[in-house]
């Protein structure tokens, strides 16, 4: 290509075009056609009639439902609050009841209601729906936590571009300290949004802040570490890790039982899922499963710290080699500034 300027522009268009493709594949693959995929439900009752009914529901649903029987409504409620099932159908000739926990997943509760409403209709009786874990009135769909995740993620991964580009001349230890400070600020903003601003969290706001810090710090340290190796491609890598794969597998809109196996598998260990499910556990389910969710966030932070340590060792080795080699002319300040500005501009908020 004869024109260096045109080649320069085309090279920088690769990143946004790959973002376009990746976002389309990830978001549309995860959200466009949600349908039950081994959605766990229970039928409440004892005796052969209950087992026959449960098997009939399973036979008709196929792989869409995983149906079990439980002996009592109390046992079904316990399973709902531990999020082992999405809904429980209480057999009754006159007053059949569907028990759900919408704080775990509003979409999941809607899905099981669609499954069992026709069943009650064939009996000629209305279906009573009972919600044993409703979200707060300020967040009636329970999806506010997903949008909190988005705010924290954007504040974190966009800051990586600033630390990597504008702070490229700083020692890595200074960039690491800045990452700690930025994650503290991002988490305070998150806690403010969740608490006094939008009232998603009516209690345990300090714990919400702590989990927000763990989540944000993990992203920032991973980004700081990756920037040493990827440079201007760091933004694309962060978008893949913490937007394309993260938002779609978090369970904030659709839990894994309403998605295909790929996103359901990621939900088991990705940091966004750890954050969303951890906050749900904290706010609505008496901390059930919280330790595992916190463990997920800690594991991602440890990965980030290790990446930063490795990056520091590489940068020190590069500096020693540069001292041993013949001195080379310094790049023009204008060029350095232009490269930094280009990298910052490629930090795209979603």
From TrEMBL:
It is a multi-pass membrane protein. InterPro entries: T7SS_ABC-Transporter (IPR051328). Residues 324-350 are annotated as: Disordered. It is found in: Cell membrane. The keyword Glycosyltransferase does not apply. The chain crosses the membrane at residues 12-32, 145-170, 177-198, 210-229, 236-254, 294-314. Its main location: membrane. The keyword Transmembrane applies. Residues 338-350 have a biased composition (Acidic residues). Keywords: Cell membrane, Membrane, Transmembrane, Transmembrane helix. One of its GO terms (cellular component) is plasma membrane. Belongs to the ABC-2 integral membrane protein family. This is ABC transporter permease. It comes from Streptomyces sp. R35.
């Amino acid at each position: 290509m004869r024109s260096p300027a045109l080649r320069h522009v085309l090279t920088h268009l690769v990143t946004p075009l790959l973002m376009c493709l990746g976002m389309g594949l990830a978001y549309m693959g995860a959200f466009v056609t949600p349908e039950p995929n081994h959605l766990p439900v229970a039928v409440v009752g004892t005796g052969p009639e209950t087992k026959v009914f449960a098997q009939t529901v399973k036979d008709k649903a196929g792989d869409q439902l995983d149906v079990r029987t439980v002996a009592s409504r109390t046992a079904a409620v316990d399973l709902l609050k531990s999020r082992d099932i999405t809904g429980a159908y209480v057999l009754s000739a006159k007053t059949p009841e569907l028990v759900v926990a919408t704080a775990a997943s509003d979409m999941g509760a809607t899905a099981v209601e669609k499954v069992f409403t026709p069943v009650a209709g064939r009996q000629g009786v209305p279906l009573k729906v009972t919600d044993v874990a409703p979200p707060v009135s300020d967040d009636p769909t329970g999806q506010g936590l997903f949008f909190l995740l988005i705010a924290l993620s954007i504040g974190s991964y966009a800051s990586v571009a600033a630390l990597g580009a504008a702070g490229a001349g700083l020692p890595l230890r200074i960039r690491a300290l800045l990452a700690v400070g930025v994650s503290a600020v991002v988490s305070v903003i998150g806690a403010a949004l969740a608490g006094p601003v939008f009232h998603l969290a009516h209690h345990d706001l300090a714990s919400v802040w702590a989990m927000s810090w763990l989540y944000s710090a993990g992203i920032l340290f991973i980004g700081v570490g990756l920037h040493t190796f990827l440079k201007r491609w760091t933004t694309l890598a962060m978008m893949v890790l913490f937007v394309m794969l993260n938002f779609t597998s978090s369970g904030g809109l659709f839990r894994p039982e309403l998605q295909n196996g790929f996103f359901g598998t990621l939900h088991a260990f990705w940091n966004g899922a750890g954050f969303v499910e951890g906050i749900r556990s904290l706010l609505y389910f008496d901390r059930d499963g919280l330790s595992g969710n916190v463990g997920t966030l800690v594991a991602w932070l440890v990965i980030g710290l290790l990446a930063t340590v490795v990056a520091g060792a590489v940068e020190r080795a590069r500096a020693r080699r540069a001292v041993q080699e013949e001195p080379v002319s310094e790049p023009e300040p204008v060029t350095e500034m232009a490269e930094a500005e280009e990298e910052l501009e490629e930090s795209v908020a979603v």
